[in-house]
Specification:
The chain has eleven helices and ten strands. It is of the alpha+beta class and about 350 residues long. The strands form two sheets. A seven-stranded antiparallel β-sheet has the order 1-2-3-4-5-7-6.
């Protein structure tokens, strides 16, 4: 990992096109029980007739708005959302959601997918949970599926027609962690730096872009001696979309500058290479254990269009230079670039 000369604003596309789910991808989703009929759609939730800004505990605007619905629509929408939550958590057993209620339906005006965030509350103990309803975007689905196969954690999501449902990924948002927790004297900073190196490597291998600090969370797990850290992406809109190689490396975003500085202060180049090698080994092992599923989804991705041709060509040339491998320049789709990146990884451990 090298320290960037500067953290100039990267040219991330602010409003990415929503790519439709094609027939082959939908067939794959059905085969893996990701395609499930849902009682409420994204389009249904768009029919709200007002909203109120959602503010955090300090009164700051969160960029989410609490959606307000007509009284005659509330019962149908709330019941459908509770059914969806049961599908996510209990495989659709509706008997467990009789004591649940929908406290709030939030709508986000920022970003590509304009998601809805649903807050579900247990009436018995006031415990709450969240899940999300978004537009079904093919590139985002590829990102979720690659995360499910190649990362240390599993992803729970479902698709029905043009609606995507995602389980909430718990953790401290990266920007909040950097601001409020990074200097916590009880945390082992070396472990934080190590996880950032590994996260950086995971994103680059599978070409997941735009991992600025507010697009991932820190999952903190107490261990018998010290806490463990895992960084998990929560935004998959930029799966294999942009043309610049550095946009797939979290180290090059100015929002992550403090994590980069911490890493360079605490880890030697040899240790960084060790952790990169460790993570590549783990990804390779996961690839082997899910070989058929990974091959199927990347074949579908290779034949699909999820980015403009000029971005594919640019990324292919930059990866060819990075790896000193001209084959990247011959790839005609983002899926082909992902497949080739994973092939290089596989060849290292053949």
């Amino acid at each position: 990992m090298k320290k960037p000369k500067n953290y100039a604003q990267q040219l991330i596309t602010k409003k990415k096109k929503i790519y439709p789910v094609n027939e082959e991808l939908r067939k794959y989703l059905a085969e893996n029980r990701r395609e499930i009929r849902l009682p409420v759609s994204y389009a249904d939730l768009r029919h709200f007739n007002g909203s109120v800004a959602v503010r955090d505990k300090k009164g700051k605007d969160t960029l989410w708005e609490a959606a307000l619905y007509a009284q005659n629509d509330v019962s149908h929408i709330h019941d459908g959302l509770k059914q969806i939550y049961s599908i996510l958590k209990t495989g659709g057993d509706s008997s467990v959601h009789t004591h649940l209620s929908v406290e709030r339906i939030d709508y986000c005006t920022f970003g590509n997918s304009n998601p809805f965030r649903i807050k579900i509350v247990n009436d018995f103990n006031d415990n709450y949970d969240y899940f999300y309803i978004k537009q079904a975007d093919a590139s985002r689905i590829y990102g979720l599926e690659l995360e499910h196969i190649l990362s240390p954690t599993r992803m729970h999501y479902f698709v029905h027609e043009s609606t995507l449902v995602e389980e909430h990924i718990a953790g401290i948002p990266g920007d909040q962690f950097i601001h409020s927790y990074l200097k916590n004297p009880e945390f082992n900073k070396v472990r934080i730096a190590k996880e950032f190196v590994k996260f950086n490597e995971r994103c680059f291998v599978r070409l997941l872009g735009d991992m600025r600090s507010y697009n991932y969370v820190f999952d903190i797990t107490p261990d018998f001696e010290e806490v463990q850290f895992r960084i998990r992406p929560i935004d998959f809109d930029q799966q294999s979309y942009e043309g610049r190689k550095n946009l797939y490396l979290p180290q090059f975003f100015k929002e992550n500058a403090d994590l980069v500085q911490l890493t360079l202060e605490l880890l030697t180049p040899e240790t960084i290479r060790q952790y990169q090698k460790e993570e590549r080994t783990l990804i390779a092992r996961r690839s082997i254990s899910s070989k058929l599923r990974l091959s199927r989804i990347t074949d579908i991705m290779e034949a699909d269009t999820i980015a403009p041709k000029e971005k594919v060509a640019q990324l292919g040339q930059e990866l060819a230079t990075h790896y000193k491998n001209g084959s990247f320049g011959k790839c005609s789709s983002m899926g082909a670039l992902v497949k080739h990146s994973l092939k290089i990884l596989a060849d290292e451990f053949a």
